[in-house]
Write the structure tokens for this entry.
Amino acid sequence: MPVQTNQSLSVDCAVFGFDGEVLKVLLIERPAYNALDRLKLPGSMILENETLPEAAYRVLEEATGLRKRDLYLKQMEIFSDPDRVSGDELEWINRKHGIRTVRVVTVGFYALLKLDRRTTDYTTSKGARWVAIEAIQRLAMDHKAILSAALGYLCREMQQSPVAFELLPRKFTIRTLQRLFEAVLGIEIDNRNFRKKMLSSGFLLATGEKEEGVAHKPAEYYTFDRNAYRRAVKAKLRMGFIDNWRY
Amino acid sequence: MPVQTNQSLSVDCAVFGFDGEVLKVLLIERPAYNALDRLKLPGSMILENETLPEAAYRVLEEATGLRKRDLYLKQMEIFSDPDRVSGDELEWINRKHGIRTVRVVTVGFYALLKLDRRTTDYTTSKGARWVAIEAIQRLAMDHKAILSAALGYLCREMQQSPVAFELLPRKFTIRTLQRLFEAVLGIEIDNRNFRKKMLSSGFLLATGEKEEGVAHKPAEYYTFDRNAYRRAVKAKLRMGFIDNWRY
DNA sequence: TTTGTTCGGGTATATTATACGCTAAGCAAG
DNA sequence: CTTGCTTAGCGTATAATATACCCGAACAAA
């Protein structure tokens, strides 16, 4: 079996956002397609002289209007099943780009961003939709598998680094932070212990501002102190990691 | 800038082994090359109808004689700098395979295996060498960067799942296990606490056998109880993860 | 004023991390 | 055979942390 060279490389991005209640993902609608294959993840072939992360950032800027500094982007795995794109979908791609590729290997990325008014408006104006994770049935090609993988990565990474804050606005309440953890990890957390834990970490800065117009005791807004976090990380490498083993 | 299709995909594997003292990695020697570029990671272009993991397993079987079930293989990142292979190296590849590729994107894998007599003999008979991590100066192309990334992954993964046992023979002493952790993580660990921690995890099974011919009190051999591990994992998802955040 | 909500300070207890003392068991050197 | 060196493996003490849960405070809505 010969070495293969007439193949294409693409990137596909699972873009996550959090609206304060549920986790959402950005999907592109292809009007020409029937309901089953209509929705896909934002993605693109790579261009000449472009690395994969560059391609991913390009896709994300097109879809959201956000530039590199406003996005958290991570490479995850590569999807290389020789038949992952074939038949109609392969023809679609070849026609669209005027090429004759026989195989498309894709690299999955996941991205986190702060869902605000402007971002939402931009994406909808581009024909993209924010869909709650729970509501997603089926996606084009193997994009459902890519999304599942991304969710797994997000889950794991939220337990290992403070990426949660990439999904929250600059100022947030501890309740919102907790909701985010509960939504992503699918667990319930005691609010008092969560607060204690978060505050004792020393990474949260009280702003002095409070919620307004809420039907309960207003909560204080906090910001994430990235520098304090970095300082703290250096200090510790504990044996406790054995407790966190997963397969 | 047009979409690119005349490119190649390859896999490169950082294969780790542990001899009881130091961490080693498997390197291929290219006799025709001068000292600086002589050593490289085992790797290959992908073939038609082959996924990337399949390609990696093929490379590993060629290099070590070990089959899938005796290897621990994990995909890590993708190296896609447009110029990561160029000039002489690109010509070398084109000549070798009779192709005309303009760009080689590679997927880095890392593999763990149990270093024993047979494996060592096989690899050396194939012109490959096990080199201590500490002793590696420079590798061909960007393979040093790939190796560094692999080491990072190994470090992180050893703190999150019991992959350490993939590097040890079926029966091992707790001291050896500790040495492995110390070698990979670059830290010193108190032997009494390490033992306590490991045994209390319930994943180690005492075999009843003991070391022989050692110049100190002989240690007992243990095996890793994978089933006990799996059972334990399900039980817990603690909030402690916040302590383990890294960037 | 009452009700429903979340905030956020607190306590009490079990679990775990970490430091370190000490004896046992082997080999080697004198 | 004794002394020394090394690692095994048991133990204890203390600090740190997780976890469960109490309860008054603060707001809006009814």
Remarks:
- The radius of gyration of chain A is 20 Å.
- Residues 173-175, 191-192, 195-196, 214-220, 238-240, 243 of chain A lie near DNA strand C (CB under 10 Å from a C1').
